[in-house]
Amino acid sequence: MRTERKPHLIKKPADAKRQSVDESLGPGLKDEATEVEHLLVEPKSERVSVDRVFCFGKENIEKHLKMEDFSCAFDYGWKIGSGGLDSIHGQGGDDLKLEVLDGLLDEVDEVDDIQAAHDLSSACEDFLLDIEFPEKFSELDCGPHVGSNLRNSSSESHSPGGSSNSVGGMSESSIVTVQESNSKNGVLGKMVNCDIHHTIRSECGCQAPVMETIRPSKEHAQDFVESDDEKPLVSFIVSNKKVKSSIKVTKGGTLLRQKRLRKPTKRYIEEFSRNSTTSGKNKCLKVRSQEEFSQVPSESQSRRGRPKKIMPKMEFESDCELSASESEDECKRTKRFKTACDRRKHQRMWTLAEVIKLVDGIAQYGVGRWTDIKKLLFASSAYRTPVDLRDKWRNLLRSSSAHKHNRKEGETNVKHCVRPLPKTVVCRIRELATIHPYPKARSPNLSSINSDPSSKQLTTTKAAPINTHGRNLRGKKCN
DNA sequence: GTTAGGG
DNA sequence: CCCTAAC
């Protein structure tokens, strides 16, 4: 049992529950301060509201409730049962707790507001809380069914290892049990809590493989194992909650018994994803989208890394499916942003010097050896890929042919040439085109030779291989 | 990996 | 400038 563990923080060693709780609080706050912080928002609110419902009226209890934001169930159980609440305050470790948990009060206010809106002051708050989830996850739960399950689980929770309980339902049952025990007798609740404690532990160990079938929970399962040994109750519950939340999202009807689980707040999700990113645990789906986002700016330097292929759209979208609607929007936004930026990132105009360089390169190496030309003549300009050189050459041929054509026809269409090249360059291009006809492209030279415009295509395609220089790339490569 | 061809 | 097929 966990109670045997170093009770340095406990002033009343007789209280087994508090021992475990305190013990768990110590490391938990240090290691998973943020996680605990957010995860505990829910239990706290529940506890507080329960406190109101049952009108315990103990000031110290209320105070304690505000301060102690760990495992709702256990905390409550021993509090009521042993009445050792006062001992918590003033303990050395409480300062740390207060620091960490203090920030929770703000968020708790949120939850309190929600409760007020739902008019939870009645004794049926449990049910209202339960109904809250069916509303949000209508496909998962149906109100009455949940309620019945809740009661069953709570009553069954005395027998640990109840295989009927799903993983997600464990904590739920524990919570409910505590609340019921509060209303009936604290001692029983205490015992129940003990049992729950064991139950959760044992069941979590057993259920870990099952959870692995669910995608995001794989990490959680690991957390389970870790926390089972190292971190006591709080962290354990925390991880358990994590699993539950993920299960709730991914799996549906099979895990209906997760009633007490509140939908994680937006802030929690964000924080969680952030933590996951830093800690290397991809517990949240959003992490991916964030990573994608961060990739965008880094691509601006080199064209070489054309990210379009790197970004498979289908994969992107499928990831979005599993996350919430908000993240879905984000995904869409990101995708739009990326596609808009990726396509035609920078249209670098070809300078005259570059054109001349290209022409020289072609004259030197021939048409088709674009990589060679790029390496030798455009090594400095990383943004010019061999494909770019080829495209440019293609365009040059076209324009030069147009030039020729225009001249032939009386220079009527000169204005169509957006960036007219110097005559010398055009002449060179034409010469090169004659010597190195672009494969399958309509060589201006040939086209001029061939008076019949309709037969240009055929003539060129046939003429290219015939060319004595063998400038056709394919033929060249074969050499 | 490179190139041709089309968009 | 980008994409894809072909090599």
From TrEMBL:
UniProt entry keywords in alphabetical sequence: Nucleus
Domain HTH myb-type: start-end pairs: 342-401
Domain (Myb-like): residue spans on this chain: 342-397
Record field: compositional bias (Polar residues): 444-462
SMART domains per record: SANT
Any single Gene Ontology cellular-component annotation: nucleus
Segments of skewed composition (Low complexity): 148-174
InterPro entries: Homeodomain-like_sf, Myb_dom, SANT/Myb
Renumbered residue ranges of the record's region Disordered: 1-28, 148-180, 277-308, 440-479
UniProt keyword ATP-binding, yes or no: no
Ranges of Basic and acidic residues composition bias in the record: 1-21
Coiled coil stretches, renumbered: none
Listed name of the protein: Uncharacterized protein
